[in-house]
Structure to design on (343 residues):
């Protein structure tokens, strides 16, 4: 794919994302804070608006970020729940930074067991997590119509957004990066009409999430001999966790595996996803050549497009029929009522 065509495709996708996806919730917003870097709002930076939300907050607070490109590193602590972050569109409002992992500290992210995950902080597990432009540690978080970007240009881990809080939802959002773009680290999450661009493990973590009608775009160089990986999932404390992709499309440049197993309990489902020719025939990969994949659950059901041909798939891909996959694609897989309690 040529660079001009790739750029036009990105623009076309972002224009489509400007059509809003309705939230599944109807909760009332108690307070609105406006961020305008030009000085026309309550605050000039997103972090200062987040800091204005009181610890222990239990009422929905909207942080409306006016059109613009906000260069800052933002963290929402675990004490600041019930935040709705809203932009003026993912093609016109973004939060960006360019931090990356120090390769001298970590060559990547090493798979870990559930026991290890429960007894280590994110930073102790891997310094990669410190690279995130936007970090959400709180439960009950919603974002819509905004983009998160890690603008680092090299081939090192560089996260655009990390979420390890529970009950997070994203509507019409965009996530831009190259390696480790979106860290869906832990908790239950819902992504609808979102756009995720990257090349290596660009959606990774231990999350239990549904991605509905999302566009996953590879920016792997066409000249690269090594394919990338769209996903890198693992299971830790929650043995029912999985990444579920329902509808949407995989497109872009270069070549991609659908995913590689971050640990021996990894689970990823692609259901009725259109897969362009960027997907390699094998479809899936191990983390290393000696990995035991007998308990890995990677599956595709009802997918279409040139990349969906399963004749060349790895023999350990799990075969599911439509009935078996329904428990994953049903919204109740992640939702016990929390989505309807969001704004």
């Amino acid at each position: 794919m040529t660079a001009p065509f790739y750029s036009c495709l990105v623009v076309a996708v972002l224009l489509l994302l400007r059509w809003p996806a309705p939230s599944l919730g109807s909760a009332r917003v108690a307070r609105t804070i406006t961020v305008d870097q030009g000085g026309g709002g309550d605050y000039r930076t997103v972090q200062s608006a987040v800091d204005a939300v009181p610890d222990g907050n239990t009422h929905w607070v909207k942080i409306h970020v006016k059109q613009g490109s906000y260069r800052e590193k933002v963290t929402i602590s675990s004490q600041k729940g019930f935040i709705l972050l809203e932009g003026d569109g993912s093609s016109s409002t973004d939060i960006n930074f360019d931090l990356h992992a120090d390769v001298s500290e970590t060559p990547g992210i090493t798979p870990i067991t559930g026991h290890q995950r429960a007894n280590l902080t994110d930073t102790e597990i891997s310094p990669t997590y410190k690279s995130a432009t936007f970090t959400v540690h709180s439960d009950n978080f919603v974002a819509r119509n905004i983009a998160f970007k890690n603008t680092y240009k090299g081939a090192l881990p560089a996260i655009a957004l990390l979420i390890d809080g529970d009950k997070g939802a994203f509507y019409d959002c965009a996530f831009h990066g190259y390696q480790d773009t979106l860290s869906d680290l832990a908790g239950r999450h819902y992504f609808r009409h979102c756009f995720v661009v990257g090349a290596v493990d660009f959606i990774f973590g231990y999350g239990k999430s549904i991605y509905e009608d999302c566009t996953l775009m590879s920016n792997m160089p066409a000249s690269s001999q090594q394919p990338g990986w769209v996903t890198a999932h693992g299971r830790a404390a929650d043995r029912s966790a999985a990444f579920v992709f329902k509808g949407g499309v995989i497109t872009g440049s270069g070549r991609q595996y659908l995913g590689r197993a971050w640990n021996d309990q990894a689970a990823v489902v692609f259901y009725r996803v259109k897969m362009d020719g960027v997907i390699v025939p094998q479809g899936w990969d191990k983390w290393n050549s000696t990995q035991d994949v007998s308990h890995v659950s990677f599956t595709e059901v009802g997918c279409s497009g040139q990349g969906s041909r399963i004749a060349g798939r790895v023999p350990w891909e799990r075969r599911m029929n439509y009935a078996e996959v329904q428990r994953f694609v049903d919204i109740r897989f992640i939702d016990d009522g929390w989505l309807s309690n969001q704004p």
About this structure: The chain has five helices and 26 strands.
